[in-house]
Specification:
The structure is a single chain. By secondary structure, the protein is of the alpha+beta class. Helices cover 44% and strands 20% of the residues. The strands form five sheets. Strands 15-19-20-18-17-16 form a six-stranded mixed sheet. Strands 2-3-1-4-5 form a five-stranded antiparallel sheet. The chain has a five-stranded mixed sheet with strand order 7-9-10-12-11. It is elongated, with a radius of gyration of 33 Å. Strand 11 and strand 12 form a beta hairpin. The protein starts with a helix and ends with a helix. The longest helix is centred in the N-terminal third of the chain and has 31 residues. It has five domains: 134 residues, HPT domain (Four Helix Bundle (Hemerythrin (Met), subunit A), Up-down Bundle), CATH 1.20.120.160; 131 residues; 59 residues, Helix Hairpins (Orthogonal Bundle); 180 residues, 2-Layer Sandwich (Heat Shock Protein 90); 139 residues, CheA-289, Domain 4 (OB fold (Dihydrolipoamide Acetyltransferase, E2P)), CATH 2.40.50.180.
Length: 694
C-alpha cells in the first residue's frame, strides 16, 4: 500500500507540474493566436507523458482525453500551425483550457479518493470535431457497434495484408472496455506504428456502445507481420483488467479448404500498478529522454530530487529542537559562577555558528518561488475578461521571490480573491470612460512581490475606478456597522471593506455579491502571521498590500521582560527603543497616554495593564518604550527591560488555549527559552486592535 501511495503521489506531483507548464504555454500563445514550433512539441510531449502515466495508473478516461489531444497536436506538428485555420484557432485554445480544467478537476478527485468522471463522450466528441476541422473534413458519425462486432468469435475475416491476429478479453464488470481497448491499442502502436496494426471494433475511442462488442466478442488486433504480434503479447500481459488473449490467424477468403486455427488461451491476471507501468512508462520515458537530450544542448543539467513535504516539516521541527537544546546547554544556570570556561565558550560559539547554518539550510529547503502561485492568476484575468466583456492584462513583478512552501500553498486564495475583485469591481466595462479619464483602454492589474529580508510584501494594484467612499459608507450604515451621525475618514471607510460579510455588490453574480468579502482575505493572511492594508483613490484605482513573513517556523525576535513574564516581539515590528521621563508623556481627554516621537504622536500601551500582570514597572522612567509598527498603526509599548535579540522557534499554542481566542488579544504563539522557560510571542497588529477597540 505504501509503495502504491508513493507512486500515486509521484503521479499527482508530476502531472500537476505539467499542467501548470501547459497552462503557461497556452496563455502566452493565445495572445499571438498561434503556437510556436517549440510550443507544439512541448504540448505533444506533455500530453504523451500524461497519457502514458494515466494508462499506467489505469485512469483510462484521463488517458483517453490526453491521447486525443496528443493526436491533434501530432497533426499540427506535422503541418505546423498553418494547418489550423484562423476561424478554428479560438476553438483550439478553448479546448486546451477546458482540457487543463478537466485534468485538474480529475486530479483533485484522485487526491481526495473520489471516483473519476467516466462520462467523457461529449468532451471526446468536441476534440474529434476539432480534429476533423483541422483535417478539413466533416466529423464522421461513430460506427455502430453491431457492424464492428460482425466478426465471429471463432475467427474473423480480415485483410490479407494483416494476417496475424490477437483477440483480447477483459475481466467481467471491469467497465469502460472500449477505452481500455483504446489504451491498449495506443501502447502497442508506440512500438509497431499506426500503419502496421488494425483493430475491431472501430470507433472505440469515441463510441461508448463499442464496449458491448468488446465484452461479447473481444477486442481484435490485426498485425502486418508476426514479429509485431509477438512484441504485443508482453504489453497485453502487463495491461490492467485483461482476463485472457488468443492468437488468431486471419481467415482468408480462399477457394481451397481453410484450416481453422487452434485457439490458445492464456489467463492473464490483472497486473498490479507497478507491473502495469512497463510498456506505457517505457514509452513515456523514451519521449522524456528525447526531450531532455534536446534541452541539454541549450541548458546545463541540474540535479534535482523530489522530497515529500512531510519530511521537510519533520526536518524543520528537528532543527528547531536542536536550536532550543543548544540554547538550554549554553545558557544553563549551572554554568553561572564557574571559572575557566574559555574552552567551553569557544566551543559554544562554534556550536552556535553551526546551528545557525543548519537553520538557514533547513529553511532554504522549504523556500520556493512565488511564481507557482502568481502565474495561475493569468488564467483568472483571461477568463474573467471574456466573461465580463472587459479588456485587461496582468503584469507580474518579482515572481522569483522565494517564500516558505506552506505560505505559497495558502496565499493563492487571498490573491485570487483580490484579482477577481479588481476585475469585477475595479476595471471599467466602458472603454470610452477609461479613454476620457486619460487611461489606456486596456485595464491593467499589477501583481508584485518584494522580499524585505524578514517578510514578503505582495501588492495587487489596479488602474480602475477606485473605491467610492459614499457607496461603501451607505452600505455600511445599512448593514449596521456604521452610524449616519458620525463623520468617518477615508481610511476608516476603507476598513469597512475588511469587515465580515461586507460586499458592495447589489446583485449576486458568479464573482461577487455573496457576502464573501475581503474579510476572508484578511483572515487568511492573518493566519499566516501577516497583515492586509487597502489604499484607494477614486478614479485612479485600488491597491491591496499584504505583508507576510517569509517563514512561519523561525523568526528573529527581541526578548523583553515585564515582571516575571518574558515576551518575544518580532524584530520586523520594532522601529526604535528608548528611555523617557514622565514629562515626555502627555494625557488626552480620555486619560490616554501619548508621546511625541519624530514630530508625530503615538499612544502608549502598558504591557503590564493589558495582561493584568502582578509584577512590572509602573513608572515609565523605570522601564523602556518600544516604538512598534503594526500595519497602518503605530504605538509605543512599555516594558521593564530588553533581554536581547534571539532567533526563536515558533511553537503553536495548544488547541484548548486557542479556544479563548487569544490571537485577538495579541498572542501568536510561544517559544522555549534557553533555561527551559516559556516566552510568549506577541502579535503586534492584533495587540493594537485589541487595545484600541476598548
Amino acid at each position: 500500500m505504501s509503495s502504491n501511495n508513493e507512486i500515486l503521489d509521484t503521479y499527482l506531483f508530476e502531472n500537476n507540474s505539467l499542467l501548470e507548464q501547459l497552462e503557461s504555454i497556452v496563455l502566452d500563445a493565445e495572445g499571438s493566436s498561434a503556437f510556436s514550433e517549440d510550443n507544439i512539441n512541448e504540448i505533444f510531449r506533455i500530453m504523451h507523458t500524461i497519457k502514458g502515466s494515466s494508462a499506467m495508473m489505469e485512469f483510462d478516461s484521463l488517458a483517453a482525453i490526453a491521447h486525443r489531444i496528443e493526436d491533434m497536436f501530432y497533426l499540427i506538428r506535422e503541418g505546423s500551425m498553418a494547418v489550423v485555420s484562423e476561424p478554428n484557432r479560438p476553438a483550439l485554445f478553448e479546448i486546451m483550457f477546458q482540457s487543463i480544467d478537466y485534468f485538474r478537476k480529475e486530479m483533485g478527485k484522485i487526491e481526495a479518493g473520489q471516483p473519476l468522471d467516466k462520462n467523457i463522450d461529449q468532451f471526446l466528441q468536441n476534440i474529434n470535431s476539432l480534429i476533423a476541422k483541422i483535417k478539413g473534413e466533416e466529423p464522421a458519425a461513430a460506427p455502430a457497434a453491431d457492424n464492428a462486432a460482425s466478426a465471429s468469435a471463432c475467427g474473423y475475416v480480415g485483410d490479407p495484408d494483416f494476417p496475424y491476429g490477437l483477440v483480447v478479453f477483459y475481466d467481467e464488470g471491469c467497465g469502460m472496455e472500449n477505452l481500455r481497448a483504446f489504451m491498449l491499442l495506443t501502447s502497442i502502436r508506440d512500438f509497431c506504428g499506426e500503419s502496421d496494426v488494425r483493430f475491431l471494433p472501430e470507433g472505440i475511442e469515441n463510441d461508448p456502445s463499442t464496449a458491448d462488442a468488446v465484452i461479447d466478442h473481444g477486442f481484435f488486433l490485426m498485425f502486418k507481420n508476426k514479429e509485431d504480434r509477438e512484441k504485443a503479447i508482453p504489453v497485453i500481459r502487463s495491461a490492467g483488467s485483461v482476463k485472457s488473449y488468443e492468437p488468431q490467424d486471419c481467415k482468408l477468403p480462399a477457394k481451397e479448404e481453410v484450416e481453422i486455427p487452434v485457439v490458445v488461451e492464456e489467463t492473464v491476471a490483472a497486473a498490479p500498478v507497478a507491473a502495469a507501468s512497463a510498456a506505457p512508462a517505457a514509452a513515456a520515458s523514451a519521449a522524456n529522454a528525447q526531450a531532455n537530450t534536446t534541452a541539454s544542448a541549450a541548458h546545463q543539467k541540474e540535479s534535482l530530487i523530489s522530497v515529500h513535504q512531510s519530511k521537510l516539516d519533520q526536518l524543520s521541527a528537528l532543527v528547531g529542537e536542536i536550536v532550543i537544546t543548544e540554547a538550554m546547554v549554553t545558557g544553563s544556570p549551572d554554568l553561572k559562577g564557574l571559572t575557566h570556561l574559555d574552552n567551553f565558550a569557544k566551543s559554544a560559539r562554534q556550536l552556535r555558528k553551526l546551528t545557525d547554518e543548519l537553520q538557514d539550510v533547513s529553511m532554504s529547503l522549504r523556500m520556493v518561488p512565488i511564481a507557482t502561485c502568481f502565474q495561475k492568476m493569468n488564467r483568472i484575468v483571461r477568463d474573467m475578461s471574456k466573461k465580463l466583456g472587459k479588456r485587461a492584462k496582468l503584469t507580474i513583478i518579482g515572481d522569483e521571490t522565494e517564500v516558505d512552501k506552506t505560505i505559497v500553498d495558502n496565499i493563492g486564495d487571498p490573491i485570487m480573491h483580490m484579482i477577481r475583485n479588481s476585475m469585477d469591481h475595479g476595471i471599467e466595462v466602458n472603454e470610452e470612460d477609461r479613454i476620457a479619464a486619460g487611461k489606456n483602454p486596456v485595464g491593467e492589474i499589477i501583481l508584485s512581490a518584494q522580499d524585505t529580508g524578514s517578510e514578503v510584501i505582495i501588492t495587487i494594484k489596479d488602474d480602475g475606478r477606485g473605491i467610492n467612499d459614499d457607496a461603501v459608507l451607505k452600505k455600511a450604515i445599512r448593514n449596521g456597522i456604521a452610524y449616519p451621525d458620525i463623520e468617518y475618514s477615508h481610511k476608516e471607510i476603507l476598513n469597512f471593506l475588511l469587515m465580515p460579510g461586507f460586499s458592495t455588490s447589489e446583485n449576486v453574480t458568479e464573482f461577487s455579491g455573496r457576502g464573501v468579502g475581503m474579510d476572508v482575505v484578511k483572515r487568511s493572511v492573518e493566519e499566516l502571521g501577516g497583515s492586509v492594508t487597502i489604499t484607494s483613490e477614486q478614479g485612479k484605482g485600488m491597491t491591496t498590500t499584504m505583508k507576510i513573513p517569509l517563514t512561519m517556523a523561525i523568526m528573529d525576535g527581541m526578548e523583553v521582560s515585564v515582571g516575571e513574564t518574558i515576551f518575544t516581539i518580532p524584530l520586523q515590528n520594532i522601529r526604535q527603543n528608548f528611555k523617557v521621563s514622565n514629562s515626555d508623556i502627555l494625557h488626552d481627554t480620555v486619560n490616554g497616554e501619548i508621546i511625541k516621537v519624530m514630530n508625530n504622536y503615538y499612544p502608549v500601551v502598558r504591557a503590564k495593564s493589558i495582561y493584568s500582570l502582578p509584577g512590572g514597572v509602573d513608572d515609565v522612567e523605570d522601564g523602556i518604550l518600544m516604538w512598534l509598527d503594526a500595519g497602518d498603526t503605530s504605538y509605543c509599548l512599555l516594558v521593564d527591560e530588553l533581554i536581547g535579540e534571539q532567533q526563536i522557534v515558533v511553537k503553536p499554542l495548544p488547541a484548548y488555549v486557542k479556544n479563548f481566542d487569544i490571537k485577538r488579544h495579541g498572542i501568536m504563539g510561544c517559544s522555549i527559552l534557553g533555561d527551559g522557560s516559556i516566552s510568549v510571542i506577541l502579535d503586534v497588529e492584533n495587540l493594537a486592535s485589541a487595545v484600541f477597540a476598548k
